């Protein structure tokens, strides 16, 4: 992502990759100021794109935006900044800004296996706001990097099991490899770590039973073993073609991701804050049309 890109391209890029960001908009100005109303910039956890004038004002706004992102508070805030000695700027005016926190996607997925189902799955996941890591030990199994969607990152490794524990922390994991023994070792590694959000394993009921017995023999509890979804995917989505299996898996993942999503009753800027910025707003009834000026 090019840090020189304009704010609207940065928004599109963050949305495509599912990266959280804050969109900053200058709402109003008074006196001498660095930028005019409607100037915008985008701030992520590590970078910023475009500008609302630079200097200590922009530094302060970036600090507040990153505090908001770090706390996962994807809220909308109104802020007012006098450009005097406190900000070390000599403009002498003042700026009101709107900070709009956008969550991107906190849904993360790690996929082990770049076979037919893995490839079909990436076709769908590339159009969903998930952050995806695609793991395989075979370089020739991956498509060209340019063919991947912005939210999909390849991870080529000769040790998928060793890398898997760190990669899957806080992420949904899908085990779709070409090798049953590798599947089994990945299951053990992820159960041992206990930090994956969920574990899905491709296979038949017969494979599921064999893995259950092997894991039970190794001392894993019934609860641990039951946490592995095998066969993975929704049972009400039929078909065995790679794309049909991928659709079934995606439907299941979307259901899992929706379970813990809180539904906030109040969103955006509070009405009292808006009234302070909008002259005459307190005199307007919700059912009364506003006359054109």
Secondary-structure map with pairings?
Elements: H1 7-17, E1 21-30, E2 40-43, E3 48-50, H2 55-70, E4 76-82, E5 94-102, E6 108-112, H3 116-125, E7 131-136, E8 152-156, H4 160-167, E9 172-175, H5 180-193, E10 198-201, H6 205-217, H7 222-226, E11 228-229, H8 242-259, H9 271-277
Parallel strand pairs: 6-7, 6-9, 7-8, 9-10, 10-11
Antiparallel strand pairs: 1-2, 1-5, 2-3, 4-5
Helix pairs in contact: 3-8, 4-5
Q: What coarse outline follows from CA principal-axis ratios? A: elongated
Tell me about the biggest sheet?
Answer: 6 strands, parallel
Strand content: 15-25%
Q: How many helices in DSSP terms? A: 9
Mean pLDDT: 86
Number of strands: 11
Helix content: 25-40%
Q: Label the CATH architecture of the largest domain.
A: 3-Layer(aba) Sandwich
By CATH, the topology of the largest domain is Rossmann fold
Structural class by secondary-structure content: alpha/beta
Topology as H/E string? HEEEHEEEHEEHEHEHHEHH
Q: Distance N terminus to C terminus?
A: 42 Å
Low-confidence regions: 283-293
Name of the top-level CATH class of the largest domain: Alpha Beta
What is the CA-atom radius of gyration, in angstroms? 25 Å
CATH superfamily of the largest domain: NAD(P)-binding Rossmann-like Domain
Query: Assembly type of the shown chains?
Result: single chain
Summarize the structure.
The protein has 293 residues and is of the alpha/beta class. The chain has 2 domains: 7-103, no CATH class; 108-256, NAD(P)-binding Rossmann-like Domain (Rossmann fold), CATH 3.40.50.720. It has helices spanning 7-17, 55-70, 116-125, 160-167, 180-193, 205-217, 222-226, 242-259, 271-277, and strands at 21-30, 40-43, 48-50, 76-82, 94-102, 108-112, 131-136, 152-156, 172-175, 198-201, 228-229.
């Amino acid at each position: 992502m090019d840090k020189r890109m304009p704010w609207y391209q940065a928004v599109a890029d963050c949305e495509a990759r599912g990266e959280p960001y804050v969109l900053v908009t200058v709402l109003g100005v008074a006196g001498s100021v660095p930028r005019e109303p409607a100037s915008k910039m985008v701030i992520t956890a590590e970078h910023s794109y475009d500008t609302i004038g630079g200097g200590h004002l922009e530094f302060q706004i970036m600090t507040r935006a990153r505090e908001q992102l770090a706390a996962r508070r994807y809220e909308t805030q109104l802020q007012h900044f006098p450009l005097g000695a406190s900000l070390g700027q000599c403009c002498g005016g003042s700026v009101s800004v709107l900070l709009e926190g956008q969550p991107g996607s906190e849904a993360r997925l790690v996929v082990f296996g770049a076979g037919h189902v893995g490839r079909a799955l990436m076709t769908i996941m590339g159009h969903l706001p998930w952050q995806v890591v695609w793991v395989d030990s075979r370089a020739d199994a991956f498509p060209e990097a340019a063919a991947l969607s912005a939210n999909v990152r390849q991870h080529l490794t000769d040790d998928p099991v060793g890398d898997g524990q760190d990669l899957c922390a806080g992420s949904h994991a899908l085990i779709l490899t070409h090798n049953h023994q590798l599947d089994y070792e990945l299951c053990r590694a992820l159960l041992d770590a206990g930090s994956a959000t969920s574990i899905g394993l491709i296979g038949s009921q017969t494979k599921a039973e064999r893995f259950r017995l092997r894991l039970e023999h190794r001392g894993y509890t019934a609860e641990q073993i039951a946490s592995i979804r095998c066969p993975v995917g929704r049972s009400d989505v039929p078909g065995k073609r790679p794309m049909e299996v991928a659709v079934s898996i995606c439907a299941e993942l979307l259901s899992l991701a929706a379970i813990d999503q809180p539904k906030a009753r109040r969103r955006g800027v509070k009405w009292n804050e808006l009234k302070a910025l909008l002259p005459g707003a307190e005199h307007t009834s919700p059912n009364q049309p506003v006359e054109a000026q």
